[in-house]
Structures are given as structure tokens and as C-alpha cells.
Amino acid sequence: MFGFLKKVGDYTQDAVGAAKYITQGLGVTFDHLRRRPITVQYPYEKLIPSERYRGRIHYEFDKCIACEVCVRVCPINLPVVDWVMNKATKKKELRNYSIDFGVCIFCGNCVEYCPTNCLSMTEEYELAAFDRHSLNYDNVALGRLPTSVTSDPAVVPLRELVYLPKGVIDPHDLPADAPRAGRLPEQVLETLPKPPAAAASAPAAVASSEPAPAADPGATSQP
Amino acid sequence: MQTFAVVTPGLDLQASFLDLLHGYGVSQQLAHLLWLPLPMLTVLVAAVVGVLVNVWLERKISAAVQQRIGPEYAGALGVLQPLADGLKLLFKEDIIPAKADGLLFTLGPVLVLVPVILSWLVVPFGQNLLISNVGVGVFLWIALSSIQPIGLLMSGYSSNNKYSLLGGLRAAAQSISYEIPLALSVLAIVMMSNSLSTVDIVNQQTGAGIFSWNIWRQPVGFVIFWICALAECERLPFDLPEAEEELVAGYQTEYSGMKFALFYLGSYINLVLSALLVSVLYLGGWSFPIPVEWLAGLLGQSVDAPLVQVITGSLGIVMTVLKAYLLVFFAILLRWTVPRVRIDQLLDLGWKFLLPVALVNLLVTAALKLAFPAAFGG
User: Which neighbouring-strand residues pair with A91?
Assistant: First the structure.
């Protein structure tokens, strides 16, 4: 008897809990009714890509040593490094370098592993073309400097979410000098406890320099 | 000798129309025959306009909930968008799939749509503002809505598509499962009102304005009825038959053009009808929160004066429509709030939760009716 009543009680509790959840959900959707859309009206407004955005790859012909590391780390072995062995100078001679952006997945492995930093990723993403063969960029095309959204006079650049001030989610009509959320490194340093005063810093510097060489043999003896 | 004219006090549109035709020498029967289609056409037009408004509301409210704008180019604020949608469906090619049963394929949407439109017979917008005060009002609606599963099964089976068949079976199961708690919650109301007629049910809720509405005496019944009505209309969270991600479009997959338009229309007409019936059964129908008799008394007017009749009539229509669309708004909001229920969760909810709760509700109402006959309908 009481087992049954307890079951009924539990069931009712579950039902009431479900009703509460649904009401909370309805509150959220109802709250959305008072928000305005924050649509970015491309192509009149464009978002400014973030600092580490993986866009089109940029290549400096003069820095490349034709080591082909980029080809080996590429998931599809995409870059085409056209080099010949120059018997006279006993060096590799780079003739052409190309990457087909119709196939590239913009993962950034080649950029990460390049030993001479001749590869970098730009903020360009508008690579659309009428013919897929024109997407096969040779070293001249790869070497072109990227065009920025901020330099286009016909475009209103808008900041992405992470660059907006605290509490703001709409990039429209934002003053250009509004700082982004979070603190710069200098501001973080100001909040840390100050080091000891300058009068004590000279003997402290002397005292700190002495244990330092003495500590070195101790440091090297430890594995 | 005095003759007592048995005439309803105030405006009587039917009598005025018949008298007008008599004046032109038309016989009694012919005049009555000419009168009959007029309320039907009015309600049909009202239903279709209601559906167009509903489609526009759905698009705009869904957009607002998702922080976008919705239709804004077809007419001012996009009000002509539903019309454009309807026209598009009208002009589309009508396809019957290969090896599909042509007759069943065509009849399926008809069987789904016609009972819903027929149920508008008993929806009252005022004391005499309905097509026909059928004595079995609400019961007629419940009986007609039971024809829907046949149409769903026909559409699913005749499409010659296994996904449509599954969708049709699920839709029929859903429809049948939620009919019983629906009927039981209506039964509790009928018990309190001592009548199946929708007009009588609303009249029983007048007297104390907003405090005499049935929702206060049947809160659990209101929730049960609303959930079952949403399940019958196949609105989220119960739109498994039309689960876009799971069954493509369920039993509607193979339909295009006008036949699909019938399903589309039927779905929205059903929603408006359900909302109207909820407002009739639980929210006092056409009654204003403050009784109009009190207001008329305050202003020193007689309730039977023609102008007062016109104003109270219009107020009644506005109140009914307002309550119905409040519920429609709630249904649209609910669509974007809750996830879809699975078929087993759906059937569990219908049979193992709503049915026992509806039975308990019925028993408690019966007990309260015996204990407090004055408050619960003697």
C-alpha cells in the first residue's frame, strides 16, 4: 500500500520537476523575443578575422630551402615543391612551389613545421573562383600580401565576439576604441604583489647572485 | 388578444435576412435555403483567414525566438507571405508516385482535412454566433477527430515508401493514443456543465467574469487537454510523424503541390481549432474578464439595445480570437523550447501518465460535483 503511494508521490515529483524545467525553458525563449538580430550584412559589413585565423597560406620564395617538411606533415601531401639538384653548387635549387587551395584543408601543419618560417597563414578567406584550376596558387600568387577587411573602403569592419567589450554581443555601432574584454599583460602585472623595496634590492641582488652559481652544481647533479 | 412573439431579444440576423427576402416575394423554404450557406461561408472564410494569420505568426514568432526577423519582403511586415506560400503550392506539379495506390493517395489528405473543417460547425464566437448549436457539440468534434488516423494510415500506406508507412503508423498510433485522455478531460467539463453543447459550456462559465472560467475548477484537466490537443495537431514536442531529421517528412514525404497544401492547411486549421476549443472549454469562450452585463449596467444601458448587442457581439468575437491566439502563441513558443519526444516516450506519456491522471481528474470532479453541487454544476 505504502509502496504504491510512494511511487505515486515520486511520479508526481518527477512530473512537477519536468513542468518546472519546461517553464524555465519557456522563459528563455520568451526572453529572446525582445532581442534584435545581430546579422552581419555581408558584403557591406564583414567580420575582422581573429589573430590566429587559418586563412590562405602565404609563402616567401626566398626563405624556402626545399626541405619538403611541409609536404611530409601535410595530411594529403599537397604542396608541390619543384626543386633540382644543382651539381655545380651542390645545393638544392628551387624552381617552383605551389599549393592547390581547391584541395587544401587549411589545417596549418605546414606552417607549424616549416623550419625557416617561410609559410604563414593570412586572414584571407574569399578565395572563390569560376574555375577550380585558378585555385592552384603558384609561388607568385602565394607570395602576394593579403588584403585586409579594414583596408576596404566599401566595407564596414565588425569585430568578432572575442574582441568585443564585456557584456556586449552586438558589434554594430561600436566605438573603435572600445577595449576588448579581459586584461592586457601590463594590467595583470599591476594586480600582482609588488617586489621588495629598492633599498633592499641591492643586497638582495648580491645575495641572490651568490647562491645562484653555488646552486648550479647542485642543479646539474640532479637529473 | 395579445400575441406573444417568441423571438430572441435583440438582433436576429437570420430573421432579418428571411424578412428581407420575404419582402422580395421569396418563399419560406427558399429563403431558409438561401440563408443556410451564409454562416458556413463566413466560418470557412474565418477559418482560412485564421490559418493565414497563424502561418504568418508562426514564421514571425519563430524568427523572433531565434533572434532573426522572418518574412519581411512579401507585403508590409511579410503579411502576404502565407498567401505566397499557398499560391506556390497551388502551382506545383501534382505527383502520384509510381506503383502507388492513386485513389488512396488522393483520399488520404482529404480524410485528414475534412473532419477538421467540419468540426468548425460547433465553435461558438457568441451566444448565437455559430453555424449550428448542435446538442452534441463537443462530442461531435471528438468523433470527427477520430477519422483522422484513417486518413493518416491511408496516406502512409499508399505512398509506396517504407518511411512513409512507418510515419503513417506512428502518426495513427499517436492520434489514437491521445484521443482517450482528451475525451476524458472533456467529459469532466461536460459533467460540470451538464451539457455537450459548446454554447451551454460557455454559458456555464459566465457570471463572475474571469473567476468563473473552467480553468480554475479544472487546472489538471486544462493541462491534460492542452497536451492531448498538441499531440492531435502533431505540434512539437509531438511532431514525430513529421520528424524532419528522422523520417524525412513521415507520411507527407511523397506529397507535393495541392495535396501537400491540404496537409499543411489541415495542420494549422487543427491548431487554430484546438486553441479555440480550449478557450471555449476552459477560458470562458467569448466572455470578457469583466461580465458585460455589469459593464452595461455601469454605463446605464440595456443589454438588449441593438448598439449594445453589436458591441458585445464584437467584443465576444475579439475575446474568443484573442484567447485562441494566445494559446497559439504559446504553442509556437513551446515548439522552439522543448525537444521532440521519442515514439516510446510518446506512447508512455499518453497511456501511462495522461490516461490515469485524466481518470483521476474525472473521479475527483464527480466527487466534488456531489459534494458542492452549487460550485461544480448541480
Answer: A86
Pairing mode, if any, of strands A57-59 and A119-121?
antiparallel
> For residue B337, what is its C-alpha cell?
523550447
Can you say how many angstroms the Cα of residue A152 is from the centroid of all Cα atoms in its chain?
Answer: 23
- Closest-CA residue of A relative to B67 is A37
Inter-chain touch A32–B67, beta carbons under 8 Å: yes
Name the residue among B134, B153, B164, B158 with its Cα closest to residue B39: B134
Top mean pLDDT of B115-119, B129-133, B262-266 is at: B115-119
Other Cβ atoms less than 10 A from the Cβ of B27: the count is: 10
Which positions in chain A touch B68 (Cβ < 8 Å)? 37, 39
User: For residues B71 and B58, what is the distance between their CA atoms, to the nearest angstrom?
Assistant: 11
ipTM value: 0.79
* CB contact burial B35-50 (16+ within 10 A = b; e otherwise): eeeebeeebeebbeeb
pLDDT confidence tier of residue B333, bands split at 50, 70 and 90:
very high
SS3 state at A1: coil
Smallest Cβ distance to A26: which of B61, B66, B334?
Answer: B334
CB A46 within 8 A of CB A172: no
Query: Residue A63 has which C-alpha cell?
Result: 626563405
Bridge-partner residues for A80, per DSSP?
A98
pLDDT digits (tens, 9 = 90+) for B7-62: 445 567 788 888 888 888 878 888 888 888 888 899 999 999 999 999 999 999 99
- Give which of A28, A29, A32, A40 to mutate to test B binding, by max B Cβ within 10 Å: A29
Does B66 sit within 8 Å of A22, measured CB to CB?
no
Residue A42 has pLDDT above 70, yes or no: yes
CB atoms within 10 A of CB A209: 9
Distance of CA A73 to the CA centre of its chain: 20
Nearest-by-CA chain A residue for B69 = A37
* Range among A134-148, A208-222, B304-318 rated most confident: A134-148
**A6 CA to chain B: closest CA distance, Å?**
16
Residue with cell 448549436: B133
pLDDT tens by residue, B160-183: 888 888 888 888 999 999 999 999
- What's the whole-number average pLDDT of chain B? 87
The residue of chain A nearest to residue B64, with distances taken between CA atoms, is A33
Q: pTM for this one? A: 0.82
Cα–chain center distance at B9: 29
CA angle centred on B34, ends B32 and B37, rounded to 5°: 105
Taking CA–CA distances from B68, the nearest residue in chain A reads A37
Best interface-test mutation with A: which of B338, B341, B349, B355 has the largest number of A CBs within 10 A?
B338
Q: Comparing A22-31, A36-45, A189-198, B66-75, which segment has the lowest mean pLDDT?
A: A189-198
